[in-house]
Specification:
Blueprint: H1 10-32, H2 42-49, H3 57-74, H4 85-95, H5 98-110
Helix pairs in contact: 1-3, 2-3, 4-5
Domain Manganese/iron superoxide dismutase N-terminal: 2-75
GO molecular function, one term: metal ion binding
GO cellular component, one term: chloroplast nucleoid
Length: 126
């Protein structure tokens, strides 16, 4: 994935995919092997193992695997930059400006304990 440079080096991408993501998937598979969760999708494992924030190893590994999959699948050459269209409209409505959103998004990730995952999400009710 040299195409992601200068934002992410090929080595960094491969490290996330080959080491972090692989370890979470392998550990989760060991934890759910032979259980009713063994045939579930990753999304379903995340949902059924969530314990209102309680420390469940299967949830931790499932959530980290999901975060890595979402992150890695979202990467694309030439991606990023300022949002446009309806997304930009909603960002400006809710954050005041795109620059303010970027500040708050970076702050959310930087102050998140652990891996620092931060996602922008929307519901149809907004």
């Amino acid at each position: 994935m040299d195409d992601l440079e200068p934002h992410m080096s090929k080595d960094t991408f491969e490290y996330h995919r080959g080491k972090h993501h692989r370890a979470y998937v392998d550990n989760l598979n060991k934890q759910i092997d032979g259980t009713e969760r063994d045939d579930m999708s990753l999304d379903d494992v995340v949902l059924v193992t969530y314990n209102k924030g309680g420390p469940l190893p299967a949830f931790n590994n499932a959530a980290q695997a999901w975060n890595h999959e979402f992150f890695l699948e979202s990467m694309k050459p030439g991606g990023g930059g300022k949002a446009s269209g309806e997304l930009l409209h909603l960002i400006e409505r809710d954050f005041g400006s795109f620059d303010r959103f970027v500040q708050e998004f970076k702050s959310a990730a930087a102050t998140q304990f652990g891996s620092g995952w931060a996602w922008l999400v929307s519901t149809p009710y907004n």
